[in-house]
Design goal:
Length: 536
């Protein structure tokens, strides 16, 4: 053997390594296709053989479209990867995501754990630890904290409106990419709520050092989604504590390093502000979300619930989940409203008839009583789910029955939010923007059963242990932004623009990029100041 080692040249070793790797891949592929416990589940040939097709489409950002095509071809149950079965029925959704389902978050979420940060509510897969972290984080999303947060939303929104019509003195403003403008608004709101100050990225000019942070978040999420969907995820996670974390810190793109430094510095400043505020009477304290997190106490020990590193991790989560997801939903709502003049005018009439001034539009039952406004929001979120792909769950010991069929421990299961919310036999016209489908009305033929069925397939905030803790905050923010904007301003799609349209699928449909959370461009819209008494 030593003689063989001495005589074999470097090209020979390279060839031998390639041949052995190929044979291992071939053997694994044959096992996956014919002998794997999930071999009987239908799906595309190469996806049943390897995780590479699924990862490729995740990297391209069109995995949700690819999954939709597979469901059309193979039915409501597909094998999207060798060890992954995805479903497209509301019954399967309940079996997988219900509060007591025998699953945990898959290792997909572990890839999102950044070096130097403590595990967050997002990246924790242990069931008990995840429940503990959710309980602590819930302190930031009480009714009291959401009501307090609405004031920060209004302050940033009023300034945003001023900027939108700054150059519209003679009529309509210059056209802007509404997605970009909403990203800036949402980021400033979350800066106010998470770090005690707005970063003013919505303000004009390029001198603001935080101006590129929303774009950095986009690039960061796309990169980590590609890693998390990789067929080599297990090897990646095994190597992370064995030197890969150090190597990644060296090779980390500049935009990720800038974002990480931004979170670190912002949390440090906010903790210092909190420590100064606790010496003041409670009525004088700045009650943003970070205040409630700093103020939270562990129910078992009475000590502060979060260490400083944990606050940094959760702040990172809040910034991404609280800004990009709501901005994505709002972009979809404005895309569909500006493409449908009749429904736009119907919504404007409802808002402007209910309130006598923009100052009347505040957080409370009067705002949330607007039926058509909520229907437009529900329909926009159905067509533009903030996380268009699947939220993968790993079956635990004892297995799981999904629609009566048993799946063993270790199987990864899920449903695609975008595909399920476009289910033909539930919605009839799934690609159409039709808010009326959410309102029980004899004249339109929509029954209570129709609404319940529509709700069963559109889950923008998920369900069970993975349900979005910030659901009430997100709905408050989206409702306030739509209502106050359409009360104060007229909005229209720029004539002849195609930015944001899904030309390869349906030009009336919004083009989405799946980077775990949703990214998009457009549409280009124009604003003008609403004239007094104009209800249309």
């Amino acid at each position: 053997m030593d003689v063989l080692n001495q005589n074999m040249s470097f090209p020979g070793w390279l060839l031998a390594t390639f041949v052995i790797s190929f044979l291992m891949f071939l053997a694994n592929s044959i096992y996956n296709l014919f002998f794997h416990p999930l071999a009987h589940i239908p799906g595309p040939f190469f996806a049943r053989m390897s995780g590479i097709p699924s990862w490729y489409h995740a990297h391209q950002g069109d995995r949700y479209i690819w999954l939709g095509k597979q469901f059309q071809k193979y039915g409501d149950k597909i094998r999207a990867e060798p060890n992954t079965v995805l479903f497209n029925t509301p019954e399967a959704y309940e079996d997988i995501y219900a509060p007591k389902s025998n699953v945990r978050r898959s290792r997909f979420y572990e890839a999102w754990q950044l070096n130097g940060f403590k595990p967050t509510t997002l990246s924790t897969t242990d069931v008990a630890e995840h429940a503990r972290k959710r309980k602590l984080l819930s302190h930031a999303f009480t009714e009291k904290s959401v009501r307090a947060a609405s004031d920060f939303v209004v302050q940033n929104l009023d300034r945003w409106h001023e900027l939108l019509i700054e150059d519209a003195s003679c009529g309509w403003s210059p056209a802007v990419d509404i997605s970009e403008k909403l990203d800036e608004l949402a980021f400033d709101i979350m800066g106010d709520l998470s770090f005690g100050k707005s970063f003013n990225v919505k303000e004009p000019g390029d001198n603001n050092p935080f101006k590129n942070i929303p774009h950095n978040i986009t690039d960061y999420s796309k990169l980590y989604n590609s890693v998390a969907r990789s067929p080599w995820l297990d090897q990646f996670l095994w190597l992370k504590p064995r030197g890969l974390d150090w190597l990644l810190s060296v090779l980390t793109p500049s935009y990720v390093r800038q974002y990480q430094q931004f979170v670190h510095d912002s949390v440090t400043e906010r903790i210092a502000l909190y420590e100064k505020q606790v010496e003041k009477p409670e009525s004088e304290r700045r009650r943003d979300m970070f205040y409630y997190m700093c103020d939270a106490r562990d129910p078992d020990t009475g000590l502060p619930a979060y260490e400083e590193d944990e606050l940094r991790g959760e702040a990172n989560l809040l910034i991404i989940a609280g800004s990009d997801t709501s901005a994505a939903s709002l972009s979809g709502i404005f895309f569909y409203l500006t493409g449908d003049s009749n429904r736009y005018e119907k919504l404007v009439r409802e808002i402007r008839s209910e309130f006598q001034s923009v100052d009347d539009i505040v957080y409370g039952p009067r705002l949330f009583s607007l039926e058509y406004l909520r229907a437009c929001i529900d329909e926009g979120m159905r067509l533009t789910p903030a996380a268009p792909g699947d939220l993968p769950r790993e079956v635990l010991t004892g297995g799981l029955k999904i629609q009566g069929e048993y799946y063993p421990k270790g199987t990864v299961v899920g449903t695609s939010n975008w595909v399920l919310s476009h289910k033909q036999d539930v919605y009839g016209d799934p690609d159409a923007f039709r808010p009326e489908r959410w309102i029980v009305d004899e004249t339109t033929g929509v029954t209570e059963e129709d609404v319940i069925r529509a709700q069963s397939c559109s889950r923008p905030f998920s369900r069970g242990p993975g349900r979005c803790l910030g659901q009430n905050f997100a709905i408050m923010k989206i409702t306030m932004i739509v209502a106050r904007t359409l009360y104060r301003l007229d909005v229209r799609r720029e004539p002849s623009t195609t930015l944001g349209t899904m030309e390869a699928y349906d030009r009336n449909h919004f083009q989405l990029f799946d980077g775990y959370i949703l990214f998009r461009h457009g549409p280009k819209v124009q604003f003008r100041k609403r004239q007094l008494g104009n209800h249309a």
